[in-house]
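Bench notes, afternoon.
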Amino acid sequence: MSGSTSPAAPPRSIRDPRLDFFRGLALVMIFINHVPGNPLEIFTNRNFGFSDAAEGFVIMSGMAAGLAYPAAFTRLPLWRAVAKCWGRAWTLYQVHLMISMICLAIMLGAAYWFGAEKMWQINNVGPWMKAPVQATIGIATLGHQFGYVNILPMYAALLLLTPVMILVAQRHTWAMLAGSFLLWIITGETRLNIPAYPNDGGWFFNPFAWQFLFAIGLATGMRLKSGERLLPNVAWAKWLSLAFLIFVLLWMKIDIVQSAGRSGLAFLRDHGFPFYLTSFDKTFLSAPRLLHILALVYFLSTQSWVTRLSASRWVWPVELMGRFGLACFALGTVLSILGQSIKAALIYDPWIFDLGYVFLALALQMGFARVKWQLAQKPA
């Protein structure tokens, strides 16, 4: 409005506001879910569908990569284009190590100084207490990952694969997606994963499985860059995706629907269908989780009100969180572990503290994003 003293919204001509808004919204929900037991958890998307904010974060990270990196593979020498992707992976590795050490210090400090001994047993801190030498080596080699601090290694691994995905997709998008789908199948069939160290098992976010969702996002971003859609906006697909989302919502909220659905999945398992098609396994990105996030993304991408909402000045703080997603994720992760540690040190169930802390921490993240945006503005 003319004469308004409110800060001007960031220019939107070269960015899709939907990507920043929903990435910021995913970060909000990730933070809320990473302070377990707070009353706001019931409002996050994991209570309304099979997928949660992690699936949204990964597919939108793929979209961002599809918008950011492919041009370099047409105008730069190959090694420089690859270096852009791998340089970002190196940045993610550095940030992961930094927040892992900060979070470990917070949890150990809460237990040592404030009697929050619970923090010695949860979030995969226990193995570090038992074998600190091996676990520290594991932290540096990404084999030992603390709870709530384990999505960036998967993201970094996916960026190492991104140059191959882009080179194939620039020649044939669906060939790249077919290869990615085949790897998802092989991963589920063989339970392929990167080994954990010094613990048994593998990574919680298995990059060999999650690469399929990232690849779909990457292909979507590459098409968006050229002003196209990966899948056309057709009425039957839109209504089918909405019907599936409603069915899943009923599954989550109505016991009889959930019982019938689980019986159906059990029937499929009993007749030889593999676990990655009939379970809700997060490590291997099982089919129900995958189908839910894809239906959600497709439906939202067809709605004009989503674009208007994402471009609204009322959601600008959330959009800025999405724009500076890595920095806000790092800050939010540290604040979530700090919140968990404070709760563990208290002797009563502090739901008032939960609400106050969550709102304060989200305000800090939004304020941090605003500062980052302000510093990024070029002087007139």
